[in-house]
Amino acid sequence: MLSSTFIHLPRIGPVTEQRIWRRGICTWSDFLREPTAAGLSPRATDRLVRLVSRSEERLNEGDHRFFASRLPRREHWRAYPEFRHGIAYLDIETTSLEGDDVTLIGLYDGRRTRIYQKGEDLEQFVEDIAAYRLLVTFHGAGFDFPFLRRRFPDLEFHQLHIDLCPTLRRLGLSGGLKNIERALDIPRSPETEHLDGWDAVRLWREWECGSAEALQLLKRYNAEDVAHLENLLRFAYPRLCRLTGVPAASGSAPGATGTPG
Known about the structure:
It contains 11 helices and 5 strands; from the N terminus they run H-H-H-H-H-E-E-E-H-E-H-E-H-H-H-H. The protein is an alpha/beta fold. It has 2 domains: 2-61; 83-241, Nucleotidyltransferase, domain 5. The longest helix is centred in the last third of the chain and has 33 residues, at 212-244. It is elongated, with a radius of gyration of 20 Å.
């Protein structure tokens, strides 16, 4: 999908991108092979040849920062196939629904789940997150990221970021994470299916009062949150390709990345 994308280039919007595709220019390689076929002015064509060539170079180098800084935020989902091997699904729990302090951070990379805990190994998160190139959250831009930045003032989110909350809204799915899971028949375990954000706060307080069982249930709840983000992204990706009108060969969904650990 990314190699069919042109809207990360200056002065190329969705309408112009659609026009380029309709003229048979479905990938960067197509454009570089016959740039005049895109139907742009000679000046614009010369400029885009340089920029598309650079995009190919940056993609071949795996330079996620290049695309994170140039793609419109709502279009970061386009980088999923190319950067899925550097993906992390992220979700946090806090001491209140206002996010006063971070209690747990869940990370799932498609193979293994790691949960960082306040008072134990929360600081390790800062070093570990730097290794990923694509982050997936649900309402991360409005909740997870601001509170993580408050907790870790030096933390830099340089990654591409797919926020599934507004992304799924484009497909007609609104509401909270649990409501969307139910709408798509994505099941929770019997132990967590009735839990919500208030319960996550309550379970942490019970852990502080000495309940080891409460902490284990909270960790399971968090682990299911991050694992289910993968299911939601796999649901959304091919539908976003169809909605966008990307040429079919470039919009095929990537293969499985693993099962939750």
